[in-house]
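Quick illustration for those who missed Monday's session on complexes.
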Amino acid sequence: MKIVLLGYGKMGQLIERFALKRGHEVVLIVDEQNRDSIELEDIEDADVAIDFSTPHAALDNISLCFEANLPIVVGTTGWYENLEEVKQITLSSDQSLLYGSNFSIGVNVFFHINKMLAKAINPYKQYDVQVEEIHHIHKLDAPSGTAITIAEGILGEVDQKKSWVNSVEGSGEEVIAKPDELLIESLRIEEVPGTHTVLYSSEVDQIEFKHTAHSREGFALGAVIAAEWLQGKKGFFQVTEMFDFNS
Ligand SMILES: NC(=O)C1=CN([C@@H]2O[C@H](COP(=O)(O)OP(=O)(O)OC[C@H]3O[C@@H](n4cnc5c(N)ncnc54)[C@H](OP(=O)(O)O)[C@@H]3O)[C@@H](O)[C@H]2O)C=CC1
Ligand SMILES: O=C(O)C1=N[C@H](C(=O)O)C[C@H](O)C1
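Prediction with LZUJQKHR bound:
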């Protein structure tokens, strides 16, 4: 595949490494410095774009790819309030987009089990649930996209919780979740690549379900595999659709 990399920071550079290892070619690298000078003809001969840029850049980058009829994999988080609008545009303009809050295999297994666990706990109202995410101090968005996906999985199964609220440790704003709100607690610590925990607590015990990324490699390899998976497909896809845990 001929790949355009949108974003060449911690993730973009690692994705380039995995792409080359898997026999692909990186034909263009776009970052904040050169983004404004990119023309349609610079990207229209590529096979796919992979966007790991910033929450503010992602929507513009998606539009650029759609104008060039270039399929796009979006790993950037922090733009999900526009998800439904982007879905409609993708479908009505016959484009190809795959997005995911987390491309690692481990987290996609986690997403699957998270829903099963939530369903199993639901009848037992003595358990309260909360989500905790820990990331490095450079992260621009909170809560993490992964934590939002986890929270949505829980909200789909646990009747007691109707919506999520976010509290960022050290932000100076105290957030107290109401009984029908699912608390997502965000912590920012040094260079942590990404740790997510779901906690079910009752008066007599606690269940902790946790995923710890030891590096960014799982995310980067997953993004390249997602780009391969998207080849020849039209439509709006989530990374979870690449996995079939039921067969
Ligand atoms: N879905 C997943 O599995 C994962 C998602 N992420 C998400 O990916 C995103 C990137 O993460 P990370 O690599 O750590 O972040 P970095 O800050 O390390 O890199 C961001 C890159 O985006 C570039 N950039 C800024 N503006 C634009 C623009 N308009 N167009 C193209 N590129 C631009 C920056 O350029 P410059 O250096 O010139 O400023 C930089 O190269 C985040 O949203 C993060 O949450 C991260 C890991 C896994
Ligand atoms: O910004 C990061 O680093 C990460 N972002 C993603 C998210 O917001 O969930 C995925 C991963 O946890 C790392």
